[in-house]
Structure formats: C-alpha cells, structure tokens
Design goal:
Length: 271
C-alpha cells in the first residue's frame, strides 16, 4: 500500500513539474548524469536484444571504401571523423552524438547495422532504412569496422561524394511491387509527413501547416488538381512541384516503392 501511495505521489509531483513548466527542456542543459547513464544503459540493452538474430552478409570487395564515402555524406556532420570535427548540428545536440572512432570496439557488426537502419529515439540519431539501401547500410558498417585504425590523413583522403541526382534522374522503380500498407505507415514517419500533417495512425505534433490527411479517400481531388486515386497520390508524393508549381509541399525525393506504400496506407486508413 505504501509503495502504491509513493508511486502515485511521484506521478503527481512529475505532473505538477511538467504542467508548471519548471522542467527545463532546452538543449543547453544536459541530463543529470544518473538520467544519462540510465538512458544509455537502456539503449545498449535494447540494441543488443533487437539485433541478436541479424546475420551479417559475406564481406564484399570495396565495402569499406563505399562506406567511407557514405559516412562523409551522411554521418560526418553529426559525428565528425579522424581529425575532422562534427558540424554545428552535432556540436549543439543534446545528448552529444560523439565520435564513432571506437564504435567497432563497443558494438558488434549486427548491432551497428541495427542502429544505423533503425535509429535511436530521443537521441537525434535517424533511421536510415528508408534513405539508404541494404547494401549501403552494410557498407557503412564495414567502414565503421575500419575506422579505429584510420589516421586523419586516411580519412581526409576519402573523396567527398557529389550531390544527389534530381528525382527525374533516379532510376529506382517499383516494377511488380505490391503496396505494403504497414510499411507505408512507417515510411510516412521516415519522411516526416507528420511534421506538417495530421496522419491517422501516426504519432505526431499538433500541427496545422498542411491539411489533415484523415478522410483523404473521400475527397474528390488531391491538392485541388488531381482526381483522388492511388496512382495520382503517388505522383503527388513524389513530384508535388510538377503537379502544382509553387506549392508549399516540398519535393522530398521519395522513392517510388515508398510512395506506393504510403499512398496505399493513406487511402486505406482514411476510408
């Protein structure tokens, strides 16, 4: 009984602190060390548990080299590299992402794959599963395995990648792909659609930047331009500026497969 009362008192106290605004949510004030340690420990155990059955593929020639190019393109801004500081984004984050020079000494390959593919919530580490191919993620893992022995000269010799090609130049296609609605719900979160729209079944902020997507299947037109259909919704998701020049809807470079899954989910979830 006393434990229940103590628990209720703790919940009440936490509610008062949050409702009063006394909790400092700024990134200038780090977590207390105990809180940081507990969260980090929980993250480590979670990664080890969820990655336990992942089997790394056989090593491929050039994987580490390709991974180095990807690292400089996507990871350096937050994690830095040997002799290269992290960018302003990484320096300003809380908790600090930190260098990955010793990652291969702390994590198994399957665990580094899981972290890269799925990200870590409440840390700023994004999930790359929808933005890099399976091979590219394993290439990054191969590079992380080589990173502890890399000198600053080795690292700076890695060629910086060219800019990504425009959407029309991408050759990815979804030939024969059967839309996966549940994967589409996940894809919506990975392209941050909930940051501007209310998306049914997707957790997100209370936002009014873009229209509410609930009931989309019952609307006659998409963006006031295209008759509502799965094919037209795919077109709108992938190339909104072509459909409606000047629209505030950004062109996110969504691959065709992801767009088809997203469209299938939105039209099914809102019927």
């Amino acid at each position: 009984m006393s434990l229940c009362l103590a628990g209720l008192a703790g919940i009440l106290a936490a509610t008062v602190v949050l409702q009063a605004g006394w909790y400092d949510a700024s990134a200038l004030r780090p977590h207390f060390q105990l809180v940081h340690t507990l969260i980090e420990r929980g993250m480590q155990q979670s990664v080890r548990f969820h990655a336990r059955e992942i089997a790394p593929p056989s090593a491929t020639a050039g994987a580490s080299t390709r991974g180095g190019v990807l690292f400089r393109q996507h990871c350096e801004q937050c994690h830095g590299g040997p002799g290269v500081p992290m960018g302003v984004i990484g320096l300003s984050m809380q908790p600090v992402p930190g260098p990955l020079a010793d990652a291969a000494r702390r994590w198994k390959a399957r665990e580094m794959y899981w972290i890269t593919a799925n990200g870590i919530k409440m840390s700023g580490m994004p999930a790359w599963r929808f933005h890099l191919s399976e091979r590219e993620i394993w290439d990054l893992v191969a590079f992380l395995g080589a990173l502890p022995a890399m000198t600053p000269a080795d690292y700076t010799a890695i060629e910086r990648p060219p800019a990504l090609p425009p959407l029309d130049a991408q050759v990815e296609r979804a030939v024969g792909h059967v839309p996966d609605r549940e994967r589409g719900r996940l894809a919506l979160t990975q392209f941050a659609c909930q940051s501007c729209h209310h998306v049914p079944g997707v957790t997100g902020p209370l936002t009014f930047v873009g229209p509410n997507l609930d009931g989309l299947a019952q609307r006659g037109f998409i963006a006031g331009k295209l008759p509502t259909s799965e094919e037209n919704l795919v077109k709108w998701i992938r190339a909104p500026q072509q459909v409606k020049p000047g629209t505030a809807m950004p062109q996110l470079g969504v691959p065709e497969r992801d767009a088809r899954d997203m469209a299938a989910y939105l039209l099914q979830a809102t019927r």
